[in-house]
């Protein structure tokens, strides 16, 4: 019962956001291009305007706000299934509660945000170390707590009426059904985006997990913060995506302070390592040990210190997040900021990225495992490049964003120019009114015929360039331009991508005429439009063009259409 209420509430929330998003697209298409973005996207009056650049909040401002919110929050395992009202009354005795929600992972949990940090301190003061395990408990006190209730007569698994927020991805079979009921491909894309994007609650939980980890690292580096980056915050995150975080050692005061010319002064004595990389490895080694030995809820800790970017990987059981902790990974933070900026500039960017990412995952172009697959990051850069190539372009090149930068935006990391404008209002967009449906068709057409053997992609220039090396796919790293972000991709994976683009382009052409007339009462509608692209493809069985001769396209498409007509469920039960 409780879960059905929760799902119902979730669908309502998504529907409201869907409508808002559609209105945003409409507003965007109606506004005269080149005007200040503020006019098009008015913000709620309660938001702090000081950090808002042209109507969009900068990622930095958003991070600061979220981090502060997380520092006033606690995570409580509610094993005892105490009634919500009783729990809130108990917690409120320590201070005002600003926000709370429940979710289910391996157990029932509550995220509770207090009004002040002192409220959390007061709550923790009253908490006790588990009785009976005094000897074996590592006495590290954190904001991950367990609620005990000596008065409850209920069995541990009994529900007590809390409405839980879903934190996992929606099953693909359900998504296909829902999309098939939409009236246009544009609506299908918007609906897919609304279904998969991170919820407010999931974002709060991600910042809270970073904040809990920060409590561990603060023992050694009290001035540092742990920040999420990647898809958790770049606007392209899907429910269930990993949590990338980095320890920002730049927060330590005293770096780059000029040595006084005369007089007395003190400097810290510090251990020296052989290189900056060795320092990062040493710090992550120690933090990895602490997370493993002291971190409540942190399991399966792996220290992967010899990777190009050294990291500590672990599972955070209470949230269900797979976490990757890096240190001083500042270029990745700039990539995150750049992707966030592009996503904020035009609502079609997120719609197309979500759709292509979802399509790529269902067709096995991307994978959760490391290997020769195209990564989500590479795929996102491909979508951005495509949008820069439209006529007129939908988004500007990175070089143009650098030219618009002010003195405060200047940023050079390890010799790489990472400068780009942070004031969104300086960015003048051109008058492109293509719909999401047109863009999706054109995306598949574009990459189904792209000359990958000769050309590389550069979002810095917004132009194809001659390939500097012989790898199958070359996508220039936006900030470290000598690097290829898709170096891992092999020929067979690129061939599958191209073949699937061609097939999807063809399928979308069919759906123009094949859009079914939907009966209002009919629950089972045939997949059409975007939904057909998420069904298993014939191309999935082709490993390489060389190894196996492909069936003629007409035969493959005929059998695909047969499979679409088949009313049986697609053989996909997992969420993405
Ligand atoms: P998912 O985790 O797959 O949802 O997407 P993600 O964007 O978070 O990708 P991932 O976890 O693989 O990487 C996290 C972030 O690191 C990305 O968003 C980029 O900012 C950065 N990143 C990943 N791969 C590369 C790369 O090859 N080169 C560079 N410069 N940055 C990368
Ligand atoms: Mg990630």
Automatic annotation (TrEMBL):
It comes from the Eukaryota. Coiled coil: none annotated. SUPFAM superfamilies: Nucleotidyltransferase, PAP/OAS1 substrate-binding domain. GO terms for cellular component: mitochondrion. It holds the Pfam family RL. Keywords: Magnesium, Metal-binding, Transferase. Residues 436-479 form the PAP-associated domain. Residues 185-343 form the Poly(A) RNA polymerase mitochondrial-like central palm domain. Residues 59-127 form the RL domain. InterPro entries: MTPAP-like_central, NT_sf, PAP_assoc, RL. GO terms for biological process: RNA 3'-end processing. One of its GO terms (molecular function) is poly(A) RNA polymerase activity. Its cofactor is Mn(2+); Mg(2+). This is Mitochondrial poly(A) polymerase.
